[in-house]
Amino acid sequence: MSRLTDISYVKRVLSAHGFTFSKALGQNFLINPDVCPKMAELSGCGENVGVIEIGPGAGVLTYELAQTAYKVVAIELDKRLLPVLEETLAEHHNVKVIQGDAMELDLRKLIEEEFQGKDVVICANLPYYITSPMVMRLLEEKLPILSLTVMVQKEAADRICAKPGTRESGAISAAVHYYSEPELLFKVSKGSFIPAPKVESAVIKLHIRKEPPLHTTDEKFFFRVVKAAFLQRRKTLANSLSSGLSLPKDEILSALNAARIKPTARAEEMTMQNFSDLAECLKKQLPTI
After folding, report:
1. 228 Cβ contact partners less than 8 Å away, ≥ 6 residues apart
2. Considering the entire predicted model, what is its pTM?
3. Considering 14, 177, 239, 264, which has the largest number of Cβ atoms within 10 A of its Cβ?
4. Was domain 3-208 assigned CATH 3.20.20.140?
5. Which CATH homologous superfamily contains domain 219-285?
6. Is 240 exposed, middle or buried (0-12, 13-18, 19+ CB in 10 A)?
7. Mean pLDDT for back-to-back runs of 10 residues, the chain (289 residues)
8. CA distance 96 to 50
C-alpha cells in the first residue's frame, strides 16, 4: 500500500513544502487506499501502455499508474506541487511531471514525443470545475488514445454517461456517445479525500470509438443543433432551436416535420439519430446556415 494514502504522511509532506489547498483549483487529494489501485487497473494501463494524468496532486494516483505503466506523463497546473511530486514519486523513474495547463498544452504533440508509438490512455482525478470542458477537449481533438478514465462529481458522471433520449441526458451526453462508449465504473465517497468535498464522486471510463455510431454530413453543424437544443432544455425543440440557432420558428417546425419528430418534443427525448436526421433536414432547407 502506498504511503500516499496515509493522511499523516501526506499532511507532513505538504506542510514541509509549505503547501495549502486551493479552493479555486478544486484541490481534493485522494486518501482512500482502495480507489487509486482500482482506477489504475481499470484504466487499461500496462507495461506497453503510456498514461497521461491530469492534475496529479500529491501523486497518489500517479504512484499506482507508474507501478504497471510503460510511462506516466503527469500534467500539473499548480507550480507549488512540483517539489511535492518530486519527493513522493522519487522511486519511480518512468514518471515525467509537466507543469502547465492541460486545457492549453498541445496534447497530440506530447503523445508523439513521449510515448514512441505506444498505446496511450488518459487517467485522472479531474478538478470538478473543468470536468466538462476538459472531457470535451479530449474527445473533440480526436487524440490517438484508447480510453479516458476519470473521476468526476457523481452528478456529472450521471449526465456524461446518460443515454441520449433519456431524462438525464444533456448536450455532453450526446457528444460523449458520439465519440466514445461511456461506462460508469464505481462510486467514490466524500470521505475518500482531503479536504472532503461536499459531493459524492464517481469514476467513469470512456472507450474511444474508432468510428462514430452514425453518419452525419456536417459534424460541426450536428453539434450546433445538439447544443442549441439543450440551451433551454425545458422548452420545446421548436422554441429552443429557434432561439439557439437564430432561425424562424416555422423553419424549425418544417425541419422537425421532415425529420418525423413531433413539434412538442424536447431535447431530452431526442436520440442521436433524431438529432442527426434533424440536422440533415435543416441543412437541406437552409444550405447556407
Report:
1. 240, 241, 243, 244, 245
2. 0.92
3. 177
4. no
5. rRNA adenine dimethylase, C-terminal domain (1.10.8.100)
6. buried
7. 76 86 76 92 95 94 95 95 93 96 96 94 90 95 97 95 94 96 96 86 97 93 96 91 93 95 94 96 85
8. 11
